[in-house]
Amino acid sequence: MVPPVGMDPDHDGNGITAQGDLFLYKARETKSAPARTETYVDGDKSETSSPAKRRRARLHFSWGKFINFFAGHAPEFTNWTSYSGYSSRTKFYTLFFIEASLRSIGDICFCSNPFSGLLILIGMLISCPKVAFLASLNLFAGILTAVLFLKIPLNEVRSGGVTFNNYLAGTVVALIADEDVLFKSPDIIVVSMVMGILTVIIWMGLNGLTASRLEFPLLNAPFHVMLVLYLLSGMASIYKPEDVFQIQGISESPLALNTSLGDEQMNNITRSFNLQETETNLIETTTTLPSALNLRDESLSPLVVEQSVDWEKVLCGIFLAPSQVFGTGNLMTSLLVYIGIFVYSPIMLMQSLTGATIGCLIGVGLSSSLEYEAVYSGSWAYNPLFTSAALGGFFLIFDVRSWLLSIVGSIVTTLTYSAMYKCNAPVLGIPFMVITWLLLPGIPAPEDAFQQDTQKFIQRGPFYRLRLGNITTPEQHRKFIVGGESHVVTEKYKSDQETLPNAQSVNSILPL
């Protein structure tokens, strides 16, 4: 989801910053600093000669590096891992693999931060360690394939945007399989690693297709493609032969995954049994009420219809939403995910909670009393959560207009979820992915690397769309439009367009 982490402005190209390591900076500066130093405060140049003032200046600068080491997209963490592994190839690749893995896990929630990924991983280990282990194997296979076989640049793999789909794919493989199969059959480990290899290959193919004309984010499309292949090819039935297609309440054939059931078939099948809820327990339940899920049946029990909404459980559903992405439905996991999002960006946390709240409230309004459990579990909330975060600060610079667009996107995403839910279609993250694609303004791909560096974003109508190579955090994005920079960038984009030999053909590919 996230483009490669950009190189630090003081980067020397060899993985080391000009100032050096975060923890060795003070020693190196003491060795090389002249007798008199200069500091810059708020853009004003002031000469300092007192040792006490120099110490305070170093302390202030180190605090800035300390924050950049842990928060945001953590650029200083990348500088530290590169510098620490500079003397040894083994140490370098070990640190590289750790950073790429943690950033990949964090990228599932738009958080390219290793500490956000670490918090999510801890949450997974608390709730379901077997699933976390199998998903990590899938991720391990994906990173090795990207580096050794596909030769994807290290900075691109390090950012996590290449392999975050692998962790999702490994999670679903483990959740679909019977619990007795995990760690007892080596076959599922091999299958998971093969899926990791194929997921990265699918990512590379789709990325080349979308990047050739427009800078279009893939989001979790490779994961959905791989999951459909896994289910419909019959591999999933090897490890859960009796129930693999009953996860949608359908047992006739694989083709029935996209088929709605008739009234007679719905009598003994729980309506709320969708894949994302199945990821929590994978236990099919039945109802003894005849035609209880047929909303047109006049014999429906009044006691069921008049059941009131438990608003405390609705609030709990808002906080459970992130864990539904990983199929756990665990409150501790969800809280750790929210903390990880806050470490990356407070604006992202606000947008995530806004989207989850919209999803739960609309879910209460559109659900019958027997379907409130889906709202309470957070299943209605995780798709609008991601749509709100994507449109409200991640791909678009955060302002009032992008905030309103994220609200609209969350509403439409929830309605899309409702339509798929009531048709017994596999929902997963498809509503979030489709609605984000539809509402995200498209921009043309840059002609060369220089154009990508100079154009951090492009104005499309009332919105400011970020270049994929310049995405960091919503807070950092807002600095791009401070001081009239937006006017400069927009004018440069127009001047570049005028110099093209066929500017009209370029305009024809841009969406209105």
TrEMBL record:
Membrane protein topology class = Multi-pass membrane protein
What InterPro entries does UniProt report for this protein, alphabetically? Ammonium/urea_transptr (IPR029020), Urea_transporter (IPR004937)
Organism domain of life: Eukaryota
- Tell me yes or no: is Membrane among this UniProt entry's keywords: yes
Q: Which UniProt keywords apply?
A: Cell membrane, Membrane, Transmembrane, Transmembrane helix
Transmembrane region positions? Answer: 105-126, 132-150, 188-206, 218-239, 335-368, 427-445
Polar residues composition bias: residue spans: 498-512
- Report the GO terms under cellular component: plasma membrane
Q: Does the keyword Oxidoreductase apply?
A: no
Q: Name one Pfam family in it.
A: UT
| Subcellular location(s) of the protein | Cell membrane
The record's catalysed reaction(s) read:
urea(in) = urea(out)
Which residue ranges are recorded for the region named Disordered? 493-512
- Show the GO MF annotations: urea transmembrane transporter activity
The record's comment on protein family reads: Belongs to the urea transporter family.
For this entry, the protein name equals: Urea transporter 1
